[in-house]
Amino acid sequence: MNLSNYYWYFSGVLTPKFCDDVIAYANQQEETMARTGGYGDRKLSKDEVKDLKRKRNSDLVWLNDTWIYKELHPYVHEANARAGWNFEWDRSESCQFTKYKHNQYYDWHCDGWDKPYEKEGPDNGKIRKLSMTCQLTDGSEYTGGELEFDFRNYDPHMRDESQHLRRAKEILPKGSIIVFPSFVWHRVKPVTAGTRYSLVVWHLGKPFK
Q1: Which of 21, 59, 123, 168 has the most crowded CB, counting CB atoms within 10 A?
Q2: What whole-number distance in Å separates Cα of residue 68 and Cα of residue 92?
Q3: Which residues, in sequence order, are bridge partners of residue 144?
Q4: C-alpha neighbours within 13 Å on the C-beta side of residue 105
Q5: Which pLDDT value is given to residue 161?
């Protein structure tokens, strides 16, 4: 799919109070170890945990509160229109509050699946179309933890790493938002000091025709 914009961002649009409220609320909930697709909810063996953490190492809390969606949805709609994607979507998954502490990271991945969801409920038959990351911690509060994109699969004219790798420096200010198609590859580099808090939400719709 040819894109004129690989992501769309809003710098510092969420209020510090909203960010702090989400952090405080999420930190009151029970956190779980982040997983990647294929591991499900079953108990993992020590070898499976070790293998998983080669790809992804972070802690998360799932949130699905209306007051959070109400704040975020207008930016999804605006980014979808202003970036020129105009993807049809009608549902959001649970919000993933993620903690990246010392040496935690998420290696290269994309958020979309190769097939639509096959499960009971409103998600059935739908795919992830738009991903959103909200920066809840200011970039001055931690080091490392950079969000990076890899565009080489979408633009054959990008010949070297300096062209196809893009670091999303625009969202370092607290309260910033970035929205991008869920099939775009990205990663979070290891945090080397401090803690990075983020909120990730995926927005679903019927498969592309």
Answers
A1: 168
A2: 11
A3: 191
A4: 20
A5: 55
Amino acid at 102: H
Strands 95-100 and 59-63: antiparallel
Question: Which 3 state secondary structure label does DSSP give 84?
Answer: coil
Ramachandran region, residue 122 (left: φ > 0; alpha: ψ -120 to 50; beta: rest): alpha
Average pLDDT, the chain: 90
Beta bridge partners of 196: 100
How far apart are alpha carbons 45 and 51 in whole angstroms? 10
pLDDT surpasses 70 at 44 = no
Confidence (pLDDT) at 99:
95
Looking at residue 179, its amino acid is V
CB 120 within 8 A of CB 82: no
Within 10 angstroms of residue 93's Cβ, the number of other Cβ atoms is 17
What's the CA gap between 104 and 53, in Å, rounded?
9
| Nearest in space to 22 (alpha carbons), one of 160, 197, 141, 173 | 197
Which is nearest to 7 in space by CA: 119, 83, 71? Answer: 83
As a dihedral over the C-alpha atoms of residue 13, residue 100, residue 170, residue 150, rounded to 10 degrees, the angle is -130
Mean pLDDT of 62-76: 97
∠ CA 192-147-13, nearest 5°, is: 110
Q: What does pTM read for this prediction?
A: 0.89
Q: Among the residues of the chain, which ranges form H helices?
A: 16-27, 46-55, 66-82, 161-164
